[in-house]
Every structure is written in C-alpha cells, then in structure tokens.
Design a protein that fits this description.
heterodimer; A: alpha/beta; 2 domains; 8-stranded mixed sheet; 3-stranded antiparallel sheet; 31% helix; globular; B: mainly alpha; two-stranded antiparallel sheet; 38 helices
C-alpha cells in the first residue's frame, strides 16, 4: 500500500490487518503472478516502497549518545568561556540549566585541547582523535536545540519529535514509509549495550501508534539475538521437521477450506519467515567472517573498544544486507556527566571514538557511505557552568538551548561545520536546527517528504515533524 | 459590548506595528486592499464574514483581518511561514469546501505577508485598556500556587482584584493607579517572587517581561474591571454553529422511519433487506460446533470445556442456542472478556507512564474490578457512565456518617478519568503544560471513546471539518476544571482517598498490621540479600578484588548513575559485566545467593496477597473551586483568550439553551456539579450519540467491523454507517431495554445475521468484498487475551480466581516479560496481569496488546513472524502443550486407546469439535512418525502433537 496518499477512512477495510513483508513475494511465487508492493493485499507491511523523491541514502545508522555529550568539550571550542573559567555566570543563573539554581556553579572552561582537522579545518577536541581523522567526511551541526531539559522528554523528542511517550520514532516512520530491502531480517534493528538498556528503554524504538510491525527489533548483545529465535526446549531436529510438516499440512487444509482469507496465507508465510530468520540472523551476526584488519579498524579485541566496535561492525553488516535503520545505544546514559566530566567524557570517548571512526572508514572503503547516513549525537547538550554534585563542582548540567550532532554520508556535505552558538556554547545564535528540522532533513535524504509522510489517527494526520512547519536544512546537503 | 472591547484591544496591538508595515510596502506586490482582499472576497468571506464568523474570523473587512480569530492573529508581517492565513491556504486546509486556492493566489498572499503585510487604509481605532481578565491568567500561572485557594502566604490571595486590594499582612498588594508602589509589581520585578527556591518546588516559572508590562499597564490604568460573564450558550442563536451543521446525521437523535412502524423490526430485518437489495441472501448458518466455539470466544473469551461442548452439541432443545447465550452471559468470565474492551477504551494501565521510572499505580486494579463487575452485573450503561464521569458528585461521601458500598463504588468508578499517561508526579514535569496534557487526554478519551467525536483538533483552533469551535473545546475543559485544575493540581499522593465501609475497615485493621510488620521485616531481609548477591557476584568473578572495593561498589550504586565519579562508574561497570553472565555459567555460590533473593521476593508476594485490599482508592473529585477557564490560543498555555464557562458541543444542542449546572449538595460539601450535569446530559435517552456510539462498539466486537467503521469518529470526516436504520434501531432498543448491554448481546447473537457461516463464496467476494453488508461472519484471530487464556484453559493451567492485585511479572535478561505463576503453578486470566506501560508481558505485546496513548479504541491485528517464533519456540507455550498432553493422557488412561482416540481427544479439547476423517488420518500418521523420531517416547510425541495443534490456524482463528 501507499502510506502517503490521502487515507480515506474506508481504506481501513483493506488495511485493518498487517503482515510480514514477505507475503507479497511468497504469494507471487506461489500463484505465479507478480504482486507488486502497490497491489499488496495484506495491509501494513514492510515491502520496499518508493519514497516521494529520489533518495540519497537508503539506510541510516544512528549512533545514539545517550545522556547528552558536552558540545564545548568535544566539538564547539569556546575561548571566551575558557577565559572566564571560575568566574560567575554573567546572567540569570535560573536560565542556565535544568536543576535548582542553587546547584549551579561557576563558568567551567573546556576540559580538553582543541585543534583543527582535515582539509576543512574542522574543530574537534583531543578526546576524539580517531573521529577527527574523518573530519572531511563529517557534517558537524553545532546549532541543535531542543525543548526540554529532562532526559525522558528530550529522549522522546529526539527520537519521536514529541516530548511525550507514545509516538513513533524516526526509525519507525522510516520503515513505515520505505519498508525494507531484506525480508529475512527485521527492517529496523536496535543494538543495545550488553551492560544494559539505555534510559527510557524500549521507548527509544517504539512504533507508538503505528502498527507494531514498525517498531525496532532489539538484537540482544548476548545469547539469542531475537526473542524466541531458537527453541527453548529440547527436541530432536527430526521431530521439529516432522512437526513443521504436519503444521504445514493442517494449515493448508484450514486455508483451502476457507478461500479468500488472505490473512491465512500471511500466517502460513510468517512461519516460513520465522524459520528463515533463524538462519539469516545467525549469518548476519557472525563477525567471524570478517578479516582481521577489519576487526582492528573497529577496535575489536581491544579491551575498551571491543563491545562498541562489535556493534558498529554489526551495523555495517546489517545495512549491507539491506536493513533500513540501525540504532546503536550505550547503557543507561553514560554521557550524563553531572560529576567528574573530564574523566567520564574521556572514558566514553575511549570506548566509542575508534569504533565510530572505523565504521566511517569501513563504509567509505566499501562504497557504502554514499548510501548510508550515519548520525552521531545525544538528546541535548551541557551547560557552560559547572554543577554541584556532592561537595564538588566537576560536572555540567543539561542544556536544551544548544548541542552538537553530526551526520556523515548519505548525501550530506563532508567537512562542513554548520551553525554557531554564543561565546559560552550556551545558546544557538546562528542557523538554529530544531529537532523537527533535523528529522525533516534525515527523511529528505531517505527520499521522504516530512509533510507527506503521515498516519491518520482519530481524525488527525499525525506526522513525525508535528504541526508546525519545520524546514529541511538545505545548506548541509551535498 | 463584550465583543467590541475585544476587537478594539486587538486593533490597538496590531496598529502599534502599522508604521513598520507601511514602510516596507514600497517594493511589494501590492497593498492588502488591492492584492489580497479580492482573493479573500472570492474564496473566504462566504464563511468568514461579518455575520457568519466561522472561527470568530471576519475576513470581509480590514478590521476583521487585523483582529484575527479565535486561533489568534491572521498574519505575522514579514513571516509567511508563521502566519495562520498563509499556512492554511498553503497547506490546502482552507477553504474547507471547494478547491484550494490557485498557486498564483497563494503566492500573492505569501508575497504580501513577506513584504510586511501593508494596508492602504487605516481604520479608525481607539485605544482600550486591559481589564481583570487579562491579568488573572497571568496571576494563575505565576502566583496563585502560593497566593490562591490552597495557600495564602503572607495572607495574600491574588485570585481577584478585590483580594489584591485587600492584600495581606503587609497591606494591600496592589494600589490602583500606582504600579511602582504596588507590592505585586515590586516583588515580581525584584525577583523576590516567585522565590527562586520555590520555582521547582511549586512548578512555576517567572513571568516574562510582557506579562509584567501587562500587569503594570493594568494597575496604572487604575485596575479597571469589566463585567464579563463567561461565554456560554445564552439564549441567543450561536453565530459559530449553523442549523445545517446540526443536521449531520449523527447529531440528530436516532429515530425509526414511520414507514417501518408496522414491520417486525430486528437485526435480521435490516441486514436481510440490504442483502436483498444487493441481490444477496444470508450465508448459510454455521454448523453447531462452530457456533458453540464462536459464542464462547465472543462472549467469555474462553473455549468451552470438553464437557460443556458435549452438553451443547448434544442439546435437544430447539432453543439450545439462546440457552447457551444466557448461560454464557451469566458466567463471571463474561465481564472479564467484555470489561477488557472497556479498559482499552479507558486506557487502563497499572503505571503512570510519561517518565522513564514509570511509577506503578498501586490500586488501579480497583477500577479494573469495578468495570468487570459492572459488566457482570449488567449495570445499565447510563448509570455506568454517570458513575465514571461524576461518581464523586452523586453522594456526599465527604460528609457521610457511614461510608456505604455505593459510595466506594462511585468513587472507584471515577478512576476512569485518571487512567491516562500522567507524568506530573515527576520532580520536574509538573508544570502547567504537562498538566494540560493530562486534561487533554481525558477530553480525548471521553470525546472519541464515549461521544464518538474527535475534540483534539479544537484544542488549538476551530475544528477543520466538524462544527466544533475552538470555544467548545474549552467549554468542555471547564466541565472538568473542578477536578482537573491546572492551577490547583493534586499530587500523586493527594489524589487518593482512604475510604471503605465499616466492615472493610474492620477487616483491614484486624488482618493487615501483623502482615505489614512481616512484610517490612522481609523487605529489609531482601535488601540485605540483594547486597549479599552483589558482593558474592564480585567475589566469584573478581577474586583478586579487595573487600574495600566491593564495599565501594555497593556505595557507588547508591549514587545516582549520572553523579558517579569515573572510579565509581568503573566499579559499577565491573559488577554489571559479571551480572549479565547467564546463570548456566554462574558459580554455585552466586546461584545460591540469587535463590535466596527469589525466595524472599516470592515470600513477600505471598504476604502481600494475604493482606486485605488497602482502603486507598485512586479517584477524581470536584474540589468546589474551579479556576476560571480561558480559551488557549493555539492551545498554548501562556496565550489565554476569552473567558468561557462549562458547556457541551453546541452542534449537539440547540446552541441557545444554557448548560445548566447545579451544585449537587447545597447543604453539604461544596462541589461545582459540572461533571454530573455533563453526565446527565450525555445519558439523556434521546442523546444523538451516546447509545449509537456504544451500540456501534458492541457491534464491532461481535462482527469485527463497526456499522460506523470509524468507531471514534461519527463526525463529518467519519465514515457513514453502512446500516443507518439498523444503528438507530439498536440505539433506540438499547435505551428502551434500560441501557442493558446483556440484552443487546441477546438481540444480536440470537439473530440469523450473527449465526452466518464464515465461508466466503466467490459471488459474495464479488458483491461484498469488504463485508460491509454483513453477508457473512468474518473469520477472526483471537486477540492476545483470548489466545493466552485459551492456551491456559485447554492445557488445564487456568486459575479462574477473579479480581484483586494484579499478578506480578518478571523481566529476564533478554527483556522477555513473563508472568510469575502463583503457588499452585496455575495462571490467572490475562486481564489480571500487571500492565505496567514499560513492561507489557511479551506474549500480550507480541499479539498486538496496544500501547495506551492515551487509550485504544480498536486494536490492530498483525500477522508477523515474532508471533510464530513465540508459539513455536517459547518455553511457556511448550509447557502448556506438555500440560495439555498430560491432561489428555490422563483422560484416556484406559488401555487400548489408539492414535485416533488421542487425535479425537486433542481436537475436542483444543478446537471443540471432532477431527475430520482427513485430520484423523493425518494426526494418527503424525503420532506414529513422531513416536518413531522421539525413539518410541509416546508422551513426548503427544506433547509435540499438542504443540502443533496449539500453533495451528484452526486454534488461533475463530470461524
């Protein structure tokens, strides 16, 4: 079906039911005729769909930096702030951050040394030595801002465009709009840290009010990657085979005695897909097939980078196989450095910097970077002032008024630094990019028009980018 | 008079900027009068003229264009993208009827705004002054938390001018004519108020400069007061909703055409007549076994036991079917099936949601039990609605000498209005916008669920399609203002009441104290056991680590994760790495420590179950002093507009008659009575929507498709009913039968229509592809609850104990959410599980249990591979198959039972029918093959066979 056309409510007659994307193809081979995605009878599905305009990127890898990385310590050098280190904030401290004004400390200069990198001369601090080497492929946006200084709400916002729970995420909208190229793997995959789920948990990849088949599928970092992928009981494989054969026959009788119920075909096919998924997922996840120098590139095998490196490599393997949207998360919210920012930020950079750079380099070498949009960033930034934690002032509070994110590949300009903040990195002063703008731009690269991508619900046309008109950030597009 | 002031004030504001506009006019595509006015005249003024001011907007005059409408200004000079006029025509949302504007017209409007929106003429205007209703919204937002109904710090009340003049301990806070000397201005400007340390505590934000300036201007002008009455229907014709609007089919009371008065009317009459018109007849009647299974799943959500099935399949009476329906309707299992539909509508959840901590709602289950009981008792639907919407205003429970069951029930029912996502319990998310979000969810649930009207659009502007003015949304909001007041908000702790009958209180007093003491003791033991487990885990995996570091790890865990120093983080990380190692690789010592924790948890759960239900009720009640309600322009909390009073959508009334509200207890507790008046209005026998909407929902659950297919929207954009006369007849019959839902089940199930077979013949597919004519019963997959409950039932694992605390769930390290079985090992029906928003049991989630945001009016039915994986591979499902096999084995213990006997028993148990000859043959052969492959293990073979039957389409789908 085409989700972009004006949805007449009566279309629900046809589309009240949902099925796996494979149905179309399976039916086609079964019936010997070609059922294209447009005529697909089963309702909401994941068959590949044409966007609204030609796409620059066919896949997205989102490296989500939960907790809010500090822009003035990583990407946005602030000499004026550095010069004011230790002095009081020159303004109303109530407007600085999130918590009680009493816990706001004094101005805190950048914690690391900055230098220019690449031919473009992009600024980056020495906490990110590997990413810095890829500067000419990166489009750095220093003028992001959001609407809420709380993690929960800011996370909902950055993922779903709304401050509250219950709305579909960017990934869900993407696969709703475009379906997937690989029908044996989920369209939208989430790779979380083995140390635990990120803050807000599964809400970060929910399909909200969209049908549940658009939600992200979490590949578990250990054990069986997908829930129930393998039998949780003992049974000889010969028995399983015989049992499946019997089920096929019974369902065949059931279907044949009930003609014209297409969902029965869909159901039979969903069992076939389940079986294939078991094989495909295993193959896609098997990093042993990679060459040693590739593993090195991602820092796999090194104590600090092994875990994140594996997930970055896995992300490449997945987009290579046609998975549409991959998100990588860290546990909880490690960037949230209210205390000991200098040591904490450096430690997370040491875990992620090399794998991230390795991913960019690897994608580029394989010619995948053109068609893969890589996004790096968190839900908000941090304050120019220090914050009290215990008796010391060693961290920074949340800052919704400015933060930095970057994109690479997928038709954005490499080596570009976009937007600017004030002298303290506290608020955006130039080329502000709202979360809606950010989303509209990503959808645009995928060939989707954020205005035309909607879902009708209770008489409202719901969009990722809400009711207020956002804009695609044309300036950063190649 | 009222309106004039309004216009004048707005004109004043706009004209302040006029010189600016005029300056820019040089290089434009023309002035308003030349360029834009002709377009408006041609395309817009039909609805937006001086007389019919749709959206309170008059585009036929310069003054009208400058004044704007109820959604605010029409344009913002220089910014087309921020201008309502441009947005509406550009996005083709206007004109509502007819073609969109041409590209050239849209471009002309854009250019005019872009170049400063110049006007040639300058209308005569006079400056007017702000009055009390301009400043009261500011004071409500910024001040009355500490100087209002609940607190009057310094003896100061800032809710109205009189109280301001009166002042407090330090004299008057406002001196008309002298803002500089007015304490209210001094305190705000020096930032003494709101005090810094109270901002986050009381959830207020400082007023921006514009608000302070407004306050100053008002005081400087002598604090003028206008005699403004809240905008409500007042006897005059409503300018915003026309008679034509009121003629929309769903807004007119249902009636039976006089031509039908002599017919014998029933469901079949209407459906059959329509089928005949299309050259069709009813499908043949489904066979008896199909009818039995269908009726059981439909009415109670469970299949019949083998004995029950036998009873009905052999029943000799001609009216066996209606007897079976009566039997099912009198089963307590009925309320558990049909109550669940209502819980979806209400958005039931056992947690608050919103914030990531997702706090558990300890006693939400009392509302769940109330609903189930109401369905089981067949509580008349009008009464059911009144209790849920205004149970607190029915009896004066506050001042009652004796608490009665009825009072408890009434109050529990109001939990309906407290079911939405609510983040206002958070430390940082209890500001006015978040509170308004909660109120908006309530209006959405009542509007779309009960009234079949989508109100949300009118929150920000006059409804695009339906005749619901912006104003009507806020009149609805005013109805709830007495209980849900964004300026006087109850915290999570204060929104419950401890209330119970004398008998209940006595039971609690007798039973609970010793159990509570035991629970406390166990909880402290659990805390210690948890710490021991962590220490043991560290000891086992890092033998070289010092005891100090282990202690420090526990210490670090007590620090919030984002406040940890790097060394603390590293310690915790170490522990986490050891904790995620699967049990199969953990040493004995760790497993023992884990076992101890589990044991204590179960013990605590057991003690908890032994306790009498707490007296606490999660309720909503009117507090007697609603703040004034203002229209919020574009739905934004800091953009107050006109004062409105309580009222219902004008399109559903004559638009003139005032909405009458009377305090329910003139001599007792002070209550506004607004919701009670609303509930009574909603349940009038001739209300055009209430009975229709509910009957449509009931029809939908019986047939998988509503007569109006958009259950939530009976408005202009909703679908028209396929059988309007049938819907009207059902609605009228419903009211006539005393709003009895069970009676209506009888009316529907005993029809020929419901008994049709689910077969689709080729000609039926051709003539009625979407089953709009109800030419058959659709085949349907069981929903998540029916599926799980059926699995439990056929495997003998179902515990039918009803009600009470929700069954606890556990989340394993893979994220699988499953239910903890009780001591018997049996499991209760799915409606009794704990539904925490962030921890929906995986089985339910996989089979389309919805995300309640804020509620769910019709569930999706998906067919996706995780469902297949779950049914094929999940250990619990396999265990049900094993239990079913054992049960069948037991029933066939006689010697000489053949494979075909087993197949027969399996079909009777799982599918409530004997197998066909082909199925018997297949089954027998399969058993032989499976036995061989299991190495002659007959039990295992039967288990596998049962597992396949539970996976089969025949089990999941109902004919």
């Amino acid at each position: 079906m085409n989700p972009f056309s004006e949805l007449n409510p009566s279309r629900r007659d046809f589309f009240a039911r949902t099925s796996d994307g494979l149905l179309g193809a399976a039916l086609a081979s079964l019936l010997g005729n070609d059922l294209g995605a447009e005529e697909h009878p089963g309702g909401y599905d994941l068959t590949p769909k044409r966007g609204h305009h030609p796409a620059k990127a066919t896949s997205v890898i989102q490296l989500f930096m939960n907790g809010g990385p500090s822009q003035m310590d990583l990407f946005d050098p602030k000499p004026v702030l550095n010069g004011m280190d230790g002095k009081p904030f020159p303004g109303n401290v109530e407007e600085v951050g999130n918590s009680n004004a009493d816990s706001i400390g004094v101005m805190m200069g950048g914690q690391y040394k900055f230098a220019r990198h690449g031919q473009s001369g992009m600024w980056m601090s020495d906490a990110l030595p590997h990413t810095a080497k890829m500067a000419d492929d990166i489009c750095l946006i220093n003028s992001m801002w959001t609407d809420h200084p709380n993690h929960d709400n800011a996370l909902y916002k950055i993922h779903s465009g709304r401050l509250f729970m219950g709305y579909p995420t960017l990934g869900a909208w993407t696969v709703y709009g475009l379906g997937t190229e690989n029908r044996n793997l989920p369209a939208y995959v989430v790779l979380n840290d083995q140390l635990g789920m990120p803050k807000n948990g599964t809400r970060n990849w929910t399909s909200g009010f969209l049908p549940p088949l658009y939600q992200g599928t979490r590949f578990r970092p250990t054990g069986s990657p997908i829930l129930n992928l393998k039998p949780q009981y003992e049974q000889p494989s010969a028995v399983t085979e015989a049992a499946r054969g019997l089920l096929g026959k019974l369902d065949g009788i059931h279907r044949n005695t009930r003609p014209h119920y297409q969902e029965l075909d869909a159901r039979i096919e969903s069992y076939g897909l389940a079986a294939r998924m078991q094989l495909s997922a295993g193959e896609a996840l098997d990093l042993a097939r990679e060459k040693p120098h590739t593993l090195d590139l991602y820092g796999i095998g090194e104590l600090k980078t092994d875990s994140y490196g594996k997930r970055c490599l896995l992300a490449r393997r997945l987009v290579e196989r046609g998975v549409r949207f991959v998100q990588i998360f860290l546990e909880e919210q490690p960037w949230d450095s209210h205390a000991d920012l200098n040591a904490n930020h450096r430690a997370i950079c040491e875990r992620t910097d090399k794998p991230v750079a390795g991913l960019l380099r690897d994608l580029k070498q394989r010619g995948l970077l053109d068609s893969t949009l890589v996004i790096w960033g968190g839900e908000f930034g941090r304050t120019p002032t220090s914050q009290k934690s215990g008796d010391v002032y060693t961290g920074r509070d949340h800052n919704m008024q400015a933060f930095s994110s970057w994109m690479a590949g997928g038709g954005v300009k490499g080596g570009m630094t976009y937007g600017a903040t004030d002298d303290f990195g506290h608020a955006v002063v130039e080329d502000a990019v709202s979360v809606h703008d950010f989303h509209a731009t990503i959808l645009n690269q995928l060939g989707l028009d954020h205005q035309k991508l909607f879902f009708s619900r209770s008489g409202l046309e719901e969009r990722l980018t809400g009711f207020e008109p956002p804009h695609v950030v044309e300036d950063i597009l190649a | 008079m009222k309106l004039d002031i309004h216009i004048q004030r707005l004109c004043f504001l706009i004209l302040c900027f006029l010189p600016l506009f005029l300056q820019a006019a040089g290089e434009t595509g023309g002035d308003f009068e030349d360029a834009v006015a002709p377009i408006l005249k041609e395309r817009c003024v039909k609805c937006h003229n001086g007389k019919t001011q749709k959206g309170e907007l008059n585009l036929s005059s310069v003054v009208g264009v400058m004044k704007g409408g109820e959604s605010g200004p029409v344009f913002e000079a220089g910014s087309p993208e921020k201008s309502h006029l441009y947005e509406m025509v550009h996005r083709k949302e206007m004109p509502k009827k007819g073609d969109p504007l041409t590209h050239a017209q849209i471009e002309t409007i854009r250019k005019w705004i872009d170049t400063g929106a110049p006007f040639r003429t300058q209308p005569r205007i006079t400056e007017t002054l702000p009055h009390q209703h301009d400043v009261i919204p500011v004071l409500l937002l910024r001040c009355t938390t500490c100087h209002g109904p609940r607190k009057q710090l310094g003896g100061v009340d800032l809710r109205n001018p009189a109280a301001m003049k009166r002042g407090g301990k330090n004299g008057p806070v406002m001196i008309p004519g002298d803002p500089d000397k007015s304490l209210v201005i001094q305190r705000i400007e020096s930032e003494a108020c709101p005090p810094r340390d109270m901002l986050l505590k009381e959830f207020v934000k400082r007023p921006p400069k514009s608000e302070v300036a407004l306050l100053r201007r008002w005081i400087a002008a002598g604090a003028p007061e206008e005699d403004i009455v809240p905008d409500v229907a007042n006897g005059e014709a409503d300018p915003l909703v026309t008679e034509e609007d009121r003629q929309h089919w769903a807004f007119v009371a249902p009636e039976i055409a006089s031509s039908l008065k002599n017919e014998k009317l029933n469901v079949d009459f209407f459906v059959g007549r329509k089928l005949k018109e299309e050259g069709l007849a009813f499908s043949e009647e489904a066979d008896r076994n199909a009818l039995i299974r269908r009726a059981y799943i439909d009415l109670i959500g469970l299949p019949p036991s083998v004995e029950e099935w036998q009873q009905w399949s052999r029943h000799q009476d001609a009216d066996w079917f209606s007897k079976m329906v009566d039997h099912l309707l009198s089963s307590p299992r009925y309320g558990e099936r049909w109550g669940r539909y209502w819980l979806d509508l209400a958005g039931y959840a056992d947690s608050e949601g919103g914030i990531s901590a997702d706090p558990v709602r300890e006693v939400a289950w009392k509302y769940r039990d109330y609903v189930i009981q109401a369905f089981n008792e067949d509580k008349p639907y009008d009464r059911f609605l009144i209790e849920q919407l205004a149970g607190d205003e029915l009896l004066d429970w506050r001042k009652a000498e004796e608490v009665t069951e009825e009072m408890v029930e009434n109050l529990t029912a109001t939990g309906f209005l407290r079911m939405g996502i609510d983040q206002t319990g958070s430390r940082t998310m209890n500001f006015v916008p978040e509170r308004l979000g909660v109120i908006s969810d309530v209006i959405a649930v009542v509007g779309s669920g009960v009234m079949g009207v989508t109100m949300e659009c009118a929150k920000c502007h006059t409804h695009k399609y339906d005749p619901i003015p912006h104003r009507d949304y806020y009149r609805m909001k005013a109805i709830f203002q007495g209980a849900l007041d964004e300026h006087d908000w109850l915290s999570f702790k204060t929104r419950t009441v401890k209330m119970g009958t004398a008998e209940h209180r006595e039971r609690v007093a007798k039973t609970n104290p010793p159990l509570l003491a035991e629970k406390k003791k166990l909880e402290s033991q659990l805390k210690q056991a948890g710490a021991d487990l962590k220490t043991e885990t560290l000891r086992a995996h890092y033998p070289a680590q010092s005891e100090e570091d282990r202690k420090a790890t526990l210490g670090a865990l007590r620090v919030a994760d984002n406040n940890r120093s790097l060394p603390q983080r590293l310690l915790v990380e170490k522990l986490m790495k050891a904790e995620v190692i699967p049990d199969s690789e953990q040493p004995e010592s760790v497993l023992a420590a884990k076992k101890k924790v589990k044991g204590l948890e179960r013990h605590i759960a057991k003690v908890r179950d032994e306790m009498e239900p707490a007296l606490v009720i999660r309720a909503l009640w009117d507090r007697g002093e609603p703040s004034p309600t203002y229209i919020l322009r574009r739905g934004e909390h800091a953009k107050p507009g006109r004062l409105v009073g309580p009222g219902v959508p004008s399109a559903l009334t004559d638009g003139k008659t005032a909405f009458e509200v009377e305090p329910p207890f003139p001599d007792g507790t002070v209550k506004s009575g607004r919701r009670l008046a609303f509930a009574r209005w909603l349940t009038q026998p001739d209300h055009p929507l209430t009975a229709r909407v509910m009957m449509n929902r009931i029809w939908y659950h019986h047939f998988g498709r509503g007569l109006v297919n958009t259950l939530e929207n009976f408005g202009v954009k909703g679908e028209r009913p396929t059988h309007p006369e049938l819907l009207d007849w059902l609605a009228l019959t419903f009211v006539e039968k005393g709003w009895s839902i069970k009676e209506m089940h009888r009316v529907i199930l005993n029809s020929r229509t419901w008994k049709q077979s689910s077969m689709i013949s080729d000609d039926r597919l051709e003539a009625d592809p979407q089953n709009r004519l109800v030419s058959r019963m659709p085949l349907r997959r069981m929903n998540a609850e029916a599926l799980r409950d059926s699995l439990l039932s056929v495997s003998g694992q179902l515990d039918v104990e009803a009600g009470g605390l929700p069954d606890q769930i556990e989340v394993d390290r893979d994220g699988m959410v499953s239910v903890i079985a009780g001591e018997t090992g049996k499991l209760r029906r799915s409606i009794y599980l704990q539904y925490r928003r962030t921890e929906i049991p995986t089985m339910m989630d996989t089979f389309d249990y919805p995300e309640m945001g804020p509620n769910c009016l019709s569930r999706n039915i998906s067919t996706v591979s995780p469902q297949s994986l779950m049914l094929m591979n999940n250990a619990n499902i396999r265990n049900y198959a094993a239990a079913m096999a054992a049960k069948i084995e037991g029933s066939l213990s006689r010697a000489g039972a053949t494979h075909s006997d087993f197949v027969d028993a399996v079909y009777r148990t799982a599918l409530s029918r004997p197998p066909s000859a082909e199925e018997t043959k297949l089954g027998s052969e399969a058993l032989t093959e499976l036995e061989a492959k299991w190495g002659e293990d007959k039990d295992a073979a039967l288990e596998t066979y049962c597992h396949i039957i539970l996976n089969s389409a025949a089990f999941l789908y109902v004919d």
